[in-house]
Amino acid sequence: MLWLSLGHYGKGFALGSGLGVLLGVLTGMYLKLEWTLVWLVRLLRPIPNLAWAPFAIIWFGVDEAAAVFIISIGVFWIVFLAAQGAIRTVDRELIELANAFGFRSGHERIVKVLLPAATPGILVGLRTALGQAWMAVVAAEIFGVSGLGWRMMQASSLLATDLVALYMLTMALLYGLMDTVFIAVHSYLLRWKA
User: Fold this and answer.
1) For 138-165, what is the mean pLDDT?
2) Rounded CA separation 19/159 (Å)
């Protein structure tokens, strides 16, 4: 069960955070794109990821894909808003300096200026999403997708609080381990700031 939940977690986190960073960077860079999507963001952002569960079951069935979808939704908004905000707060003088040194194309500007400057903000969003993804795992698995969340709900319905506590502790320890690894990666990626 643990490996199933880790698989759901990893795939959902990767998909949600990848799309979140991509769309967050694009909307942060291009004001017209942000204006185009602003109402869609305002409509969809407040919907809890658990509310998407019936749609996930209709679209994907009671399957791993449904769990990955629900976890991705939970992660996406956190990372999207963090990436968008990080790009928006990049010092405009850096962009002018990049233009002066000939970095005028969108690709050069993203790779050489915007992403390095926005990385600290994006990493904050990713770290927050690490914890949100575990909450989403439980939400995604309570509908019958095999994993720790499903086992936790079964134990809860049988009032087996010792098992529920064990599953909760397992998730907490896994999150703690992942957060520790993430902090090490974070420190490595931002070693230039020290």
Assistant:
1) 84
2) 39
